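# step 3/5: fold
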Amino acid sequence: MDFIETLKSRASKDKKRIVLPEGEEERNLKAADQVLAEDFAKIILIGNPTTIAENAKKWNLSNIGKATIIDPKNNPDKAKYATILYDLRKNKGMTEEKASEMAEDPLYLGCLMIKAGDADGEVSGAIHATGDVLRPAFQIIKTKQGMSCVSGAFIMFLKDKNYGENGVMVFADCAVMPTPSAQELAEIAVATGNTTKVLCGFEPRIAMLSFSTKGSAKNEVVDKVIEATKLAQAKAPELKIDGELQADAALVESVGQLKAPGSQIAGKANVLVFPNLEVGNIAYKLVQRLSGAEAIGPILQGIAAPINDLSRGCSVSDIVKMVAITANQAIG
């Protein structure tokens, strides 16, 4: 059973309510139909019910009738959600009138449903920019307790099974935080360790990457990684975290033993935490393109409830996969 099928199987045993705010859009509807056919999550579609029904008929989608459909313009719970938004944002200048208007915005409505306990997670972004997806998440859902930042992880499936956990590795942050502080980098490491446990099902061995290994180079950016490593170890002593490590020291056992003798991570890492977004984004794309690895993500982490962003070039299959991932994050 492959990775996604394993996630679907787990999700089917505890079906979570996943909201798709772009409920009228073709790829979202086709993905919703597939999820409902496979029966591993409950789907909430936000959109005009007539439009959704017409599109489902046009595309021969026989399972859409099993979805819960919320019309943002004629929503009986609009006042409830508007009140939640007003209470959350009134100190930021939110008015009751503006809150009522924004409660009709599908991206805000999806997050308000999660905040109210009416949904468990959200997948969006097929027709919206990342900033538009994340803005209501930051304003309404906010970050998890003990976390001050959101980051994006990729699960990498390598052809060479000698690396990571039988060829599976997790990379972060490759999507969100351009220049994390030491504290934020530590939080990213802890969040990525938890993502690895929940989604991959193996014990994370986390390498905090740098161009230095155990003091081989002196620089303020190296100092940040050293500090982040100490903070992460203190924040989550149950996780195996070590740094600073160069990539080869993290991945190749003979190099790890030479450069970082005694390290329980060196040469055995299955999670790589990059010092900044520039490095992380370049690294995952190089690995993906040059080695033919499959990259699944970005999987957003650090938010108090699972909300995941799609590429606007995503496929139906991509959305189905992200629903499975989001459902598993909601199970925890």
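# step 4/5: annotate
Residues 3-142+306-331 form a domain with the Rossmann fold fold (CATH 3.40.50.10950).
# step 5/5: archive (pending)
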